[in-house]
Each structure stands twice: as structure tokens, then as C-alpha cells.
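Revision sheet: C-alpha cells.
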Amino acid sequence: MKLGLFAALAAAVPLVQAQSVISAKAGMIHYVEGTVYLDDGLTKPKFGQFPDMKNGSVLRTERGRAEVLLGPGIFLRLAENSSFRMVSNLLTESRVELLTGSVLVECAELTPDATTQILYRNAVANLKKNGLYRMNADPAEFLVHDGRAEVTRDGTTLELTRGRFVELDEPTLTARRFDAKLTDSLYRWSARRSGYAATANISAAKMVRDNYYMLSRSSWFWNPYLGMMTFIPYNGSIFSPFGYGFYSPRTVYVVYAPRPVYTPSTGGGGGGPVFDPSRGYNVSSGRSYDNSPVVSSPGPSAAPAPAASPRSSEAASPRGGEGGGRRN
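Predicted:
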């Protein structure tokens, strides 16, 4: 079995080196666990193969969860006993409609030329900034854990920022507060998934850099070593709402390149740091008070992975039940 997996990885590497996986459509079903249906057919992504949601398709979970990729850097995660319909799978205009349960959307990068919306009945939540957003069907509400969004219903628009939510079945849209630090199992599972994607980003971005593959825009990229897709920014480094870093091919070198290590020195000849190949890092060119190895962090540290969640996602609002917040 190990030999077969190694062969599959080896076969996949040249393909990855040759091309970036830039999906022409939103709605790639990237990961499922438990019982998940796509248009009433049981779905299970295979190694390196992911079903796509067409406009009008419905993804439904029972005792399971699902992760769907929208525009590059935008992860949609569906709780247990939940469902949503793909309204528009355009990368420039991704729109999903929550039918039942709960959905959480992590936006690591929202581009100005793209629209991302979550619908529920006659309410539309337009995501305006990188952040973390949640829509619940029962009770009907929209929450902003981080970021900024505009909720429109019956011609009225309400702006929400971090720690604000709105009840969608109220006669008048009113912004209320909730404790964004209180979480539930859907939130914690989403945080773990974000951490996995960030881990896959490091070797994938280095692969792109080492093979001189030029990205024309931010994209999804297949990492054959970890068997999953990851997000690669076009330029710079982006940190997700969960605190995990995603590096571009231009910036991933900070993880791998040795950092200069300056140590106190006395006497003359105290120029800049000199790389010592026997140690693998830079040392002072002058006499050091401490010749012991100095270990430096390779880059910005990711947030620690949250504790393991219960088996049930408890798709109800994080404001009630497990880890619920309190309304003001």
C-alpha cells in the first residue's frame, strides 16, 4: 500500500510542476467526512480528484461535514445536518444559498474585482473584507466573527463588523453584539482545516518558486505530498482569520532561508554576520560571548491548532448551546 501511494505521489509531482491548478469555476468539493450528498448522490472526493458544483446543485450533509473552495483563498465549510445551493459558481461572482443548518466562510483574500455572497431566503450577505462569516438557518441569523459585511433585505442594507450579528427573521434589521471569541465545534473544525491548508501552502509555494512557474493571479494549487489543495497568494504573505500564514512564491523563502544571527562581539574585525556551513546559520564575524548555536524562528508563527472538537458539529448558533455567546 505504501509503495502504491509513493507511486501516485511521484506521478503527480511532474503534473504539479508543470501547471498551477487555477479552477475556472467556484464550487470545488475539496474535502468531506461522514455522509455527504451532492444532488442526492453520495459524494467522496478521490486522491487528486474533486467534484465540482454546478449552478443549482445542492450539497447536503447528514452525519458529516464538507469543505468547498470558492474563489482563491475563500473556504466554505458546511456543518453536519446542513445544506446549501450553488447559485453562481463564477470566480468573479460566487453566490451560495443556505437551505438548512449552518455554513462558515473563511476569506483569506477577497479581491476588489470579485463578489462573494451568502443568501438565506430573501436576505443577502455581501462579504466586503477578509474575515470569517457564518450563516445559520435556525435561528435565522448572520454573524461576523471577523471582517466586514453588508446584509440586504427588502431594500434595506445593514453593515456588520467584527462581533456583530443580525437576526434575519426580525421585521427590522438590527445589529447586535456577540462574543466572537466563543466558539463551537464547526468553528474549531474550520480552524483545523485552515491550519492544514496553511501547512500545505509552504511546500507548494516553494515548488512553484523552485520550478520558476509564474503565477498570473492568486490560485488554488494541488500539493501532492499532503494530498490536498492549498491557497497560494499572487504576491506577499496573507494571514487567515485563524492566524495561519499563506506565502506567495516570492515570500516563502523566509521559511527556508537561514536568518542572520547577531551575537555580541569584542575587539576589531567585527564586520557583519558570516554564514557558517558547519552550523547552518549566520554567526558574528567578531569574537562571540556565546558560541552556542542560536536557533531563530523561520518566520511568522501560525496560531496553535484548536483542541479537538466533539463528533457532533452542533450546527446551531455559537451564541447558544456549546460555547454560546450572549446577546446584549
